[in-house]
């Protein structure tokens, strides 16, 4: 899954560590999220959306769009 | 902006908590192992030698407790990495155990079989952790 987490973080001038503390996860987890190696759990996705004040689908983009 | 390789405050707190849990167990294990080796008379005939031989299990249980508490503290992603590493170590230990078991059935006496199984399991865990944490 693609995401705009890195761009959103950098726009706020936060390090990965600073974002990790705000999300209560490890810096390693933030790094994995940004590189697309890890898709967050639903609670973590909601925490990210809440932190950046955007809907989840504005931050995360599935690789394939499900058929309607 | 500081390096992106910085550790978060949460990382440091979790690491400190883990070290506080883990190291007393390891130090205790080494101390007990030393005491068992020197005082246990494991090669002797005293019935107490069995109790001496079981003594290192106590600090080992403490270490297991530390790992379990660490697993509860870390986030989902790290938990997945850690448990995958443990699963690889467990599988390696099981394969080693089965292999040694069959060799034993075939009449080949493998010395220090228990330690071999332990070593293979630990090496499997360490290698898996190194690969998944790249």
From TrEMBL, chain A:
<feature type="domain" description="HTH cro/C1-type">
    <location>
        <begin position="5"/>
        <end position="59"/>
    </location>
</feature>
<keyword id="KW-0238">DNA-binding</keyword>
<dbReference type="Pfam" id="PF01381">
    <property type="entry name" value="HTH_3"/>
</dbReference>
<dbReference type="InterPro" id="IPR001387">
    <property type="entry name" value="Cro/C1-type_HTH"/>
</dbReference>
<protein>
    <submittedName>
        <fullName>Helix-turn-helix transcriptional regulator</fullName>
    </submittedName>
</protein>
Automatic annotation (TrEMBL), chain B:
<feature type="transmembrane region" description="Helical">
    <location>
        <begin position="20"/>
        <end position="38"/>
    </location>
</feature>
<feature type="transmembrane region" description="Helical">
    <location>
        <begin position="50"/>
        <end position="68"/>
    </location>
</feature>
<keyword id="KW-0472">Membrane</keyword>
<keyword id="KW-1133">Transmembrane helix</keyword>
<feature type="transmembrane region" description="Helical">
    <location>
        <begin position="115"/>
        <end position="132"/>
    </location>
</feature>
<keyword id="KW-0812">Transmembrane</keyword>
<feature type="transmembrane region" description="Helical">
    <location>
        <begin position="80"/>
        <end position="103"/>
    </location>
</feature>
<protein>
    <submittedName>
        <fullName>Uncharacterized protein</fullName>
    </submittedName>
</protein>
